[in-house]
Design a protein that fits this description.
Layout: E1 11-15, H1 33-40, E2 44-48, H2 50-53, E3 63-68, E4 71-76, E5 79-83, H3 85-91, E6 102-105, E7 117-121, E8 126-129, H4 132-140, E9 146-148, H5 155-170
Parallel strand pairs: 1-2, 1-6, 3-7, 6-9
Antiparallel strand pairs: 3-4, 4-5, 7-8
Helix pairs in contact: 3-4
The structure holds iron/sulfur cluster.
The site of iron/sulfur cluster has 12 residues, from helix 2.
């Protein structure tokens, strides 16, 4: 927050399923009540579910990430011809996500994961990396602190993230 900003509380985007909203592919949530309570004390939370935002329903067929060379593709597991890569990448550049001071994402998700999402390689092996939406958001916004919610189970990591966000917000 600079001295011209009217914003007094940093805005944190957060995967909607972590807030207790039943938006996962299987119709469930991944509510993290203790974490959310701590975050709400310091931040304004902006919910986002990339898969719902691009028009997918709940429940929906699960997707996964296929890695082909340097290229990642997000496809429906039971029908790989349904490729959701482009809409998930385009969503990451939407104007509504520009005024964000930090991002907390759900681990292991093909859309939201940061470094824990399985990537299937052409030779049949698996490595771990980012989900399609988070990879695109991080590329477009390299200075915005991003973290997986599970990392914040550590009080030290939570404190570090809060400090990073406040610093980033005060510099924008
Ligand atoms: S796309 Fe992200 S916010 Fe939506 S259900 Fe999956 S992990 Fe949660």
């Amino acid at each position: 927050m600079n001295r011209f900003s009217t914003k007094t509380v940093p805005n944190i985007a957060i995967s909607r399923c972590l807030l207790g909203e039943a938006v996962r592919y299987d119709g469930n949530s991944k509510f993290q009540p203790n974490l959310i309570k701590k975050l709400e004390a310091v931040f304004t939370l902006i919910p986002i579910c990339p898969e719902v935002e691009i028009g997918l329903g709940v429940p929906r067929p699960p997707i996964h990430i296929i890695e082909m060379g340097a290229e990642l593709r997000a496809v429906v597991i039971e029908d790989p011809d349904i490729d959701l890569t482009q809409p998930l990448q385009e969503l990451a550049s939407e104007k509504s996500l520009l005024d964000i001071d930090g991002f907390i994402v759900k681990a292991r998700s093909p859309s939201c994961g940061l470094d824990s999402t399985p990537h299937l390689i052409e030779d049949g092996s698996t490595i771990y990396g980012a989900g399609i939406f988070s990879a695109a958001y991080k590329k477009a916004n390299p200075l915005v602190p991003m973290v997986e919610a599970e990392t914040l189970e550590s009080p030290q990591e939570l404190e570090k993230f809060i400090e990073e966000v406040i610093t980033a917000a005060s510099n924008c």
